[in-house]
Amino acid sequence: MRPLNYPYFKFLGAVETLATSALPLQKRLEFAHTGFIAVKRDDFDAYPEIMAAYDDLYEAITKIKDPDAGYVPATTSRMTDEEAEAAADKLFTLYNLISRVYHSEE
User: Fold this and answer.
1) pTM of the model
2) Among candidate residues 68, 64, 79, the one with its CA nearest the CA of residue 29
């Protein structure tokens, strides 16, 4: 099996959600998160650069700690367009890092 097989396909789906939905970017980020919610930080133990990008993304999308609404929905719903664009860029960066490792075994 290729390295990072599971995270690769989860983040591929998240990127597709960002790219293909007509919803506002803030809502697309929330929905993209549901696609990779099962991917954990520990999945990247052997890849410090990817782990750092994962941490960076999660910091951006979970700033507002609202257990009732959920951290991600609470945060993304209050993001400015610029903050949402920055978070989307973090997601794309993370996907690209994972993709490089995944495709390195071809």
Assistant:
1) 0.93
2) 79
Is the separation of the CB atoms in 4 and 103 below 8 Å? no
**Structure confidence at residue 46 (pLDDT):** 94
Residue 41 DSSP symbol? G
pLDDT digits 0-9 by tens, 86-96: 999 999 999 99
Range of the domain at 13: 5-103
What total number of domains does the chain contain?
1
| Rounded Cα gap, residues 101 and 103, in angstroms | 6
pLDDT band, very low/low/confident/very high, at 101 (cuts 50, 70, 90) = very high
3-state secondary structure of 90: helix
DSSP 3-state of 66: coil
Measured distance CA(101)–CA(91) in Å, rounded:
16
DSSP 15-69: HHHHHH--S-HHHHHHHHHHHHTT--GGGGTT-HHHHHHHHHHHHHH--S--TTT
